[in-house]
Input
Amino acid sequence: MLNIQPIKDEFGAEIGGVDLSQPVSAETYQKIDDAFSRYGVLVFRDQDLTPAQLSDFSKHFGPLHVHHLAENTYSDHPEVRVLSNVKKKGRYIGQYRGGHYWHADLIFCELIGRATILHGVECPPEGGDTLVCDMRGAFEAMPQDMKDKLDGKVAHHDHAYRYNILYPERPPLTPEQAAKVPPVDHPMVCFHPQSGRKSILLTVPTIRTLGDLNEEDTETLMKEVEAFCTQPQFVYAHKWRKGDVVMWDNLCTMHSATPFDEKYDRIINRTQTVYEVRPQAA
Ligand SMILES: O=C(O)CCC(=O)C(=O)O
Ligand SMILES: [Fe+2]
Output
């Protein structure tokens, strides 16, 4: 029997009573999907999954995405990426240090990320938490004057703009890679289709301008909004255990990786699905 335990009222839920390595009925998938739409982030414990099983589970939540920097994937499952600090033969076995800042996945693409699904293969005993914040709850709780600065505005997202600042340890995007992620406009406040609630589409480093504000004023406002939305009452901090599956909806959340003592191994398998239509203004 599926057991759905909310974590914070309407944000986050832990789901028990399901083994994701086994075929799951259509009815159970529907219940998981409904909980996903309602709570924005779901946690499953003690799941023993091969990359193929993770991929099978993931494809129920939208088309699977193969990353534009397709590396650190399984050769027989390019849709499954590895995140890791572990090195073999002098090379990281997965993506090293991704996402250590507040962001929503693929927000800089026309079709933004829907479900990001992470499976803990090796997890440090402490640190390396993933923080996820509730952008619907934060918008609803926001002072009216801040809402007014965002509602009805168009944000211009440009992934290449601050890429080198975000990832100084990585080689710059090649012209071919940059060409795959051209700038895109999205409503700042969007409609979350499954719940009908309003949400904010925010990643400070990729938003270059908002409405008619210049770059500097945009950055100042976006940082204020980020500070509001990431207050503790809107944040779920996931402390990883081996076998955890954590999934979040990028239309109504932001997330951030956190540091850990690198004497520990951290290996996470990861899939990503996308929305099939562009975000709509609320
Ligand atoms: O490593 C993590 O905790 C999360 C990394 C991240 O941003 C992602 O997988 O999208
Ligand atoms: Fe991410």
User: Anything to note?
Assistant: The CA atoms of residues 221 and 227 lie 10 Å apart.
